[in-house]
């Protein structure tokens, strides 16, 4: 099976219709806030992946 993305399935007219639907659902003023939050989330996710994991403490009973 070939690998493909959703972007490969969407052409110009589909992208325009999708953009209009999002604009109608969220409104023009809310979209920049949503994109800003999405950008912050992606940035935090990438920073979390870049950090080295902290090993869990080992409880040893003697």
Q: Number of DSSP helices?
A: 3
Order of helices and strands: HHH
Overall pLDDT metric = 80
Termini gap: 56 Å
Class from helix and strand fractions: mainly alpha
Name the shape in a single word. elongated
Kindly provide the radius of gyration, computed on alpha-carbon positions and rounded to a whole number of angstroms: 21 Å
Sheet having the most strands: none
Beta-strand content: under 5%
Helicity range: 55-70%
Counting DSSP E segments of at least 2 residues, the number of strands comes to 0
Contiguous low-pLDDT stretches (5 residues minimum) are none
Summarize the structure in words.
The chain has 62 residues and is mainly alpha-helical. It has three helices and no strands. The chain has helices at 6-9, 12-26, 30-50. The termini are far apart. The mean pLDDT is 80.
List the keywords.
62 residues; mainly alpha; 65% helix; 0% strand
In short:
The chain has 62 residues and is an all-alpha fold. Helices cover 65% and strands 0% of the residues.
